[in-house]
Amino acid sequence: MAEEIEKPVIILIDDIEVNILSLKEMLQDTCYILEAQNIAEAITLIKKYKLKISAVLLNIVMFEMDGFKVLSFLKDNLLIDSIPVIILNENTPSEIIARSYELGASEYIEKPYNKEIIKT
Questions:
Q1: pLDDT tens readout for residues 10-45
Q2: What is the rounded CA–CA span in Å between residue 92 and residue 25?
Q3: How far apart are CA 36 and CA 44, in angstroms?
Q4: Which residues pair with 11 in a beta bridge?
Q5: pLDDT tens-digit profile of 32-86?
Q6: How many CA atoms lie within 13 Å of 75's alpha carbon, on the beta-carbon side?
Q7: What pTM was estimated for this model as a whole?
Q8: In angstroms, how far apart are the furthest CA atoms of the chain?
Q9: How buried is residue 106: exposed, middle or buried, by Cβ count under 10 Å (0-12/13-18/19+)?
Q10: CA angle at residue 88 from 10 to 53, to 5 degrees?
Q11: Which of 30, 29, 96, 85 is nearest to 58 (CA)?
């Protein structure tokens, strides 16, 4: 818990392990990283850490889950204004990006990830 207080808490939500590992490698020196590979894990972490979360990095288009559920959960629980959600994807149709912003996403970053942009 002490490490959480010293570093920003970031939740990485993605169903592809290599994506999580890549992002974790970029951020682990400066952030306390929590990982979720499905909606249930993501919501459990959000409920547990709430306003201790500095940001959520969310793959919105995943094979077996809908990243919009995470955005909806944050919005329904009045957390979306306090926790920035950065959408991470590649070749995402503009209507999905638009819906993400409508649900409260703060930013969209396209793959391949630039380490300096991710860290910022």
A1: 999 999 899 899 999 999 999 999 999 988 999 999
A2: 24
A3: 9
A4: 34, 56
A5: 999 999 889 999 999 999 999 999 999 988 877 788 999 999 999 999 999 999 9
A6: 14
A7: 0.90
A8: 41
A9: middle
A10: 20
A11: 85
